[in-house]
Amino acid sequence: MGLFGLFSKEKKQVLDQGLQKSKEGVFAKLTRAIAGKSKVDDEVLDGLEEALITSDVGVETTLNIIERIEKRVARDKYVNTAELNAILREEVVALLTENERGEQGDFAAPLPAKPYVIMVVGVNGVGKTTTIGKLAYQFKKAGKKVYLGAADTFRAAAVEQLCIWGERVGVPVVKQKMGADPASVAYDTLMSAKANDADVVLIDTAGRLHNKINLMNELTKIRNVMSKVVPDTPHEVLLVLDGSTGQNAFEQAKQFTKATQVTSLAITKLDGTAKGGVVIGISDQFKIPVKYIGLGEGMEHLQVFNKTEFVDSLLG
Fold first, then answer.
1. How far is CA 192 from CA 70, 147, 156, 185, 204, in A?
2. Please, what is the Cα angle at 301 between 118 and 246, to 5 degrees?
3. What angle do CA 88, 79, 41 make, to 5 degrees?
4. How many CA atoms lie within 13 A of 45 on its CB side?
5. pTM of the predicted model, to two decimals?
6. Do the strands 264-268 and 236-242 form a parallel or antiparallel pair, or are they unpaired?
7. Of 4, 45, 189, 208, which is most buried, counting CB atoms within 10 Å of its CB?
8. Residue 298: CB partners within 8 Å, gap ≥ 6?
9. Are strands 302-304 and 290-294 parallel, antiparallel or unpaired?
């Protein structure tokens, strides 16, 4: 129990540090919203609305949160401003809970299939390949046998970067020559993973968005080829988004959810930005659970998303 508590404390510390800029921004805006007020009224709610929108929570999600708080105020008759922060945390957690598809668990949790195949998508520059490397590290640390597939064959740098991560983590990377068919790489990866009794397979894919039809066709082809080797794959399609881009991350999520069936999200680079509210907005608007968050450069800085801890760190 003592060791578990220590690990939890360290994880929470990383989370608090990673969200420090976002927390400072939100806290300053909330303080201005309630300055000189003792009761939550329309003026306070207007200030709260502005604070959330300017923290990249997004307009629709903000209005949803405000509506929830208005109902609480109407029900409880009198709500003082000292209670507002606690109520806000409760309502945001409730909002994120609605988008869950079962408990996320942790890296050591049993997987529903073997090998468990994750196709990773996202535009270039969001930290997609780095996230794959960190996921490989976390899964391997938890005792899982991991294989990586370098199916982003349109950028030599992407294959090289994945190979560097493979060497660093100590997991095999399946690759072909530059310009090879991505579906062929995915096929080879799954064949090798099956033959070597792998637990987890992570497939890197190209991050081009300039032609959505081509992207859609490519991702569909990869899915179809993989399902011939391991039925019903991929088991998960993980979309990686750069949290520091704020509202642009919403647009990327919109484009990728149109191009393929995204089942989970990883939001990276939250440590260098004040736009941590984007996690709440994207989860709410797309009804896709946030599974991982990136809070720094270190391998340990990729965490399984815990909604309650996240909201406490951001708004606590």
1. 56, 8, 22, 11, 16
2. 80
3. 85
4. 18
5. 0.91
6. parallel
7. 189
8. none
9. antiparallel
